[in-house]
Structures are given as C-alpha cells and as structure tokens.
Amino acid sequence: MARIEALTVENASPEGAQILRAIQEKIGMIPNLYATMAHSPAALSAALAFGDAMGTSVLSAQVKEQLALAIAGANSCDYCASAHTAIGKMTGVDADELSKNVSGNASDPKVQALLTFATTVVNTRGDVADSDIEKARSAGVTDAELVEVVASVAINTYTNYFNHIAQTKIDFPVVETSCSAC
C-alpha cells in the first residue's frame, strides 16, 4: 500500500492539477509517480524540467532508458525498473537487452561502459576513482557523456528514492529488481 497516495486532477491543488493535465495531454496518461509527486507541484515541476532538459542530451533515448534501468537496479526500485522497461521498449531496445540492463549489463561495449560508470557512481555515492573514469574513456565515453551519466544518476536516484519512500503503486507491467524484499 502506498505511503503517499497518488492524486488526481480533481483532488490536486490547482497548480498540481494543471501540471497533471499537461502530463496527460503530452503522454496520454498520468503515471502514478507524477500523480504522487503532485503533492508538491514544485518537486514535480523540478523533476519534469530536469527530464525535459535532458531531452537535448548527447545520449540517445535508448541509452538514457538503459541507464535508468541500471540505476533502478542499483537502487532496487521496482517502479522505475517497470516504467523504464516499458519506455525502453518504446524506444526500440530489445526486451532481452532491457532485462540485462536492470542488472547493469549490456551487450554493446560502450553502453556497458556507461552502465558500469553509472552503477559505480551510485554505489560510491559519486566518489569514483580516477581508474573508473579512465576505464569509461578507454571504451569511448566522452566527457559530455560522463557529465550526462552523472545527471542521469541524479534524476533517477531522486525518483528511485521517492518511490521507496512513497511506495508508489506500479502502474506498468511489473519488473522486479534483484532485491525481492524492496
């Protein structure tokens, strides 16, 4: 059971309802993550603005979803693993690949380097070693990509932690991370 209930357009504040209507118009649904965040229109707006800004990323839509899955796996967030598996399929990533990504694995060597760096950032709370950066660079990861991986860790950790705290009801086909107790 959710600790923080999802709001609807009808019971959200006027500002929250406006944001929820915009989400509905843009993507055709209001995911429970956003409906729950709508308790704070400022927090929801911040998350959406961060995501919109990353829309111009040097990372492809597919890689951003693969990163989100690896980060969800590292943070044991079933909601985000479920959501980003569904979105990843819509971007054209193969279902078997998406399943690997939740564990921080990828078939493509460069994507693997990106996922490894992302999970290292999560696991070390950003205190990575010089060798971690050099390993990513040796796989062809650019400085812009390194910066964007850190940004991906930040926004995805925000939503992962939010979902842990709120116990957001999963409204996508369920994908479980390796932590069955989470």
Radius of gyration: 16 Å
Total strands: 0
Low-pLDDT stretches:
none
Main β sheet profile: none
Q: Tell me the series of helices and strands, N- to C-terminal.
A: HHHHHHHHH
Number of domains: 2
Shape descriptor reads: globular
As a percent range, the share of strand residues is: under 5%
Explained architecture:
This protein is mainly alpha-helical and 182 residues long. The protein folds into two domains: 14-55, Up-down Bundle (Single alpha-helices involved in coiled-coils or other helix-helix interfaces); 58-166, Up-down Bundle (AhpD-like). It has nine helices and no strands. It is globular and about 50 Å long. The mean pLDDT is 96.
Q: What distinguishing features does this structure have?
A:
182 residues; mainly alpha; Single alpha-helices involved in coiled-coils or other helix-helix interfaces; AhpD-like
What is the element layout, followed by pairings?
Elements: H1 14-27, H2 32-37, H3 41-53, H4 61-74, H5 78-90, H6 95-102, H7 109-124, H8 130-138, H9 143-166
Helix pairs in contact: 4-5, 4-7, 4-9, 5-6, 7-8, 7-9
Brief write-up:
The chain has 182 residues and is mainly alpha-helical.
